[in-house]
Write a structure and sequence with these properties.
Blueprint (H helix, E strand, L loop, with lengths): L1 H12 L8 H13 L3 H9 L7 H17 L3 H14 L4 H13 L3 H11 L6 H14 L3 H14 L3 H20 L2
Helix pairs in contact: 2-3, 2-4, 3-4, 4-5, 4-6, 5-6, 6-7, 7-8, 8-9, 9-10
C-alpha cells in the first residue's frame, strides 16, 4: 500500500520528458513495469532520447520485453529477449524473463534450461533457483526442489524460503510413510 502511494506521488512529480535523461527515465520505466503499469512505462520509454548508451539500449529492450510479456505477447517478448541475449548471453534479468515466458507458454524444458543459465549469474542466481524449485515441485521432483531451495538459501537467508523447504521435506516424509 505504501509502495503504491509512493509510486503515485513519484509519478505526479516526475513527468516523462527527454530532459530527465536516460538513467532517470529508464529507472522510472522500470519501476512502472514492476508495478504493472505498462501504459505509463511505455510513455516513459517513448520519452527516451533517440541516442542511448549501450547499457541504456539493453535496459530499454528488456523493459519492452517485460511489457510484451505482461500483455501476453509471448512471441514479441521472446524475440526481444533472444535479441538481448544474443548480444549479452549472461544477462541474468533477460534469462529470468525468458524463462518466465517459457513457463507461460508451457515450455518447461526450455524454462528449466534458461533458469539454470540464470543461476550462473550472481545477481539472478537466487531468483533462478527459486524458479527452478517451483518447476521441479510442479513435476513432483521433490529432491530437485530441495536442492534448488537449499542453493537459494545459501545465497540469501529467507524465512519464507526456509518454510517452503520445510514443507517440501514434509511432503517427502509423508510420501515415504504412505508408500511403505
Amino acid at each position: 500500500r505504501m509502495y503504491d502511494e509512493a509510486l503515485a506521488i513519484y509519478s505526479k512529480l516526475l513527468k516523462p520528458d527527454p530532459s530527465l535523461g536516460e538513467q532517470k527515465l529508464l529507472r522510472f520505466a522500470e519501476i512502472l513495469v514492476g508495478a504493472g503499469r505498462s501504459d505509463e512505462a511505455k510513455t516513459a520509454l517513448a520519452a527516451l532520447p533517440d541516442r542511448l548508451s549501450a547499457k541504456g539500449k539493453s535496459i530499454k529492450l528488456l523493459l519492452e520485453a517485460k511489457i510484451d510479456a505482461a500483455d501476453r505477447k509471448w512471441d514479441d517478448a521472446r524475440r526481444k529477449l533472444e535479441a538481448l541475449l544474443a548480444d549479452d548471453p549472461l544477462n541474468g534479468e533477460a534469462l529470468l524473463a525468458l524463462g518466465k515466458v517459457d513457463v507461460a507458454v508451457g515450455d518447461d524444458a526450455h524454462a528449466s534450461y534458461t533458469f539454470d543459465s540464470a543461476t550462473r549469474v550472481p545477481d539472478t542466481a537466487y531468483r533462478a533457483h527459486l524458479e527452478l524449485a517451483n518447476l521441479e515441485l510442479r513435476e513432483r521432483q521433490y529432491s530437485h526442489t530441495i536442492t534448488h531451495l537449499e542453493a537459494a538459501l545459501k545465497i540469501e537467508r529467507s524465512d519464507a524460503v526456509a518454510d517452503y523447504l520445510a514443507r517440501v521435506r514434509a511432503l517427502i516424509s509423508g510420501d515415504d510413510q504412505s508408500n511403505p
